[in-house]
Amino acid sequence: MSLAELICPAGTPAALRTAVDAGADAVYCGFQDATNARNFPGLNFTPDELAEAVTYAHARGTKVLLALNTYPPAGKVDLWRQAADTGARLGVDAFIVADMGVADYIARTHPGVRLHLSVQAAASSPEAIRYYCEHFGVRRVVLPRILTIPEIRQIKREIPCEIETFIFGNHGLMVEGRCSLTNYLTGQSTNMDGVCSPASDVEYARHEDGSMSSQLAGFTIDRFGPEEKAGYPTICKGRYTAPHRPEGYYAFEEPVSLNLSRLLPELIDAGVHAFKIEGRQRSKSYVRGVVRAFRAAVDDIRAGREANMADLVALTEGQKQTQGAFETKKWR
Amino acid sequence: MAVTEMTTKLTLGPIAYHWPAERRRDFYARIADEAPVDEVYLGEVICSKRAPFHEGELPEIIERLERAGKTVIVSTLAEVMLKRERKATDDLAVMDTPEIEVNNAAGLYARGRRPHRIGPFMNAYNEATIAWMAGQGATHVCLPTELPAEAIAVAAAAARDEGLGVEVQVFGRASLAVSARCYHARAHGRTKDNCRFVCEDDPDGMPLRTRDDAPILRVNGIQTQSESYVDLLPEADRLVADGVTHLRLMPQDVDMVAVAGVFRDVLDGALPVDEADGRLGVLSGAVNLSNGFYHGAAGYRRIAMAART
To answer: Domains, chain A, ranges and CATH?
Structure first.
């Protein structure tokens, strides 16, 4: 049964095996370079590792999706093409792409491999999605995390491809593929280099009053009182001041994580084909826990049983959760 | 070289902010009469809720600008999600005149193979994407603001091989992000649906400062912009030499006629770059100028002349 496929993060070969063993229907991963949007130190796969991973996953009935979802800057297109060629040779089940030039190359060169449209393409209307379907033969769109369930249901009626939505993990606020915040402060680009608020530019500074600043490239993204837990300085989750907000406030979003476990039945009913769990940068044990819990929940829903969501809620480790735009457009 | 420079066009990008209709009318009247720009982009790119406030004035403004010899292009929304946004995009995309600049794939879908320009939100980062777009009817491409010099040169050469005009933003705040959420409304404890157009209060964006009081970003409705104005005036010669045909000035809350004059003078060789850049600094008031993206550095940075090669 293909409905409600569980798409799980595989930041490393070990995480990939963990996700496969925990019941992923598909895993997504990338190479150790700028061709994917999680180009973080210590993450991702060499071609040899990917070859082993494909063998391991396929032997257990799990698909492997290769993220080639960044935007090659002019003059460096070959790196993305070589990555696509390598992926096709190793037998990946789909490419996740955002750039039209990359999509066009794969559609012409590897027509036998499925194309999924990355959230980085920011296709948020039926017309935009149809553009990619009709021109590049895209078979699935990963929807931006900005749509309500009624809007997803409406889109599904008007497009010829499958829908994948994020259901759990980091909750990005900006339209993906249109964000240069990191490049503005650090000189490394999310779109071109696959980098977002990079750890290499992070510093925590303790002040005399016991407070702590979390900084990115020398900019204070947030400041925490002695009793507060200092958070990671992700630009769109920082606290800033505005002329009429001198106290400092979360200008974009609080550091919450997305958890749509309660909405799974509604999402399936709206026509969502696949559920994506964010977190290629996460540990093996995190991946094991999240994938197992969602595997059980999806199986319960498929079998018409009441799913036990308590485990899923517990996974966010005390962090604040949100259902974001999916629940209500008041989020906007 | 001189011949190429003579043909380099100065353009005025679409107003990113919610300036009142009257201000827009006055602004474009002055642009028509006094600004040495060749092409002017109009239309609401950021927020579909704002459009009704000024679309009624558009035909008159277009007529005014065209009478003054300017080429007018209408830009489409960067974000298309709601019914009214889809409809606005469709309506624009079927127009025969003036020219259309598309900023969302929904606009490309509606436009089909009819001629159109590719806007800066379309992510035309490379030669393969530009070739694809040219094959679909694009006549002109505005490159992403964060693209560094080496990539601009390769992209510009590819675009010109395809017969496309090539545009780069050389002045004004850079668009750093767009969102479904309105951050202006959020700052005032409202949501997008009941925003009461509070963004009108900030004609140059709402300043955000870090908690140790360093200026960092600007909020413009659903858009987040750079605190600094991009300034590629000293790089204009190299942009032109690398094949860029159009230089874009983004409207800020400064004397844009004077800004255009400074750029025009540099392109015409009538003003030394150092002196011109000094004038631009004065015109920009307290706002910092930056060129980091172009030099492959953090966007907010100002790479000094001496460090340039």
So the answer is: 5-171+256-331 (3.20.20.60), 190-250 (no CATH)
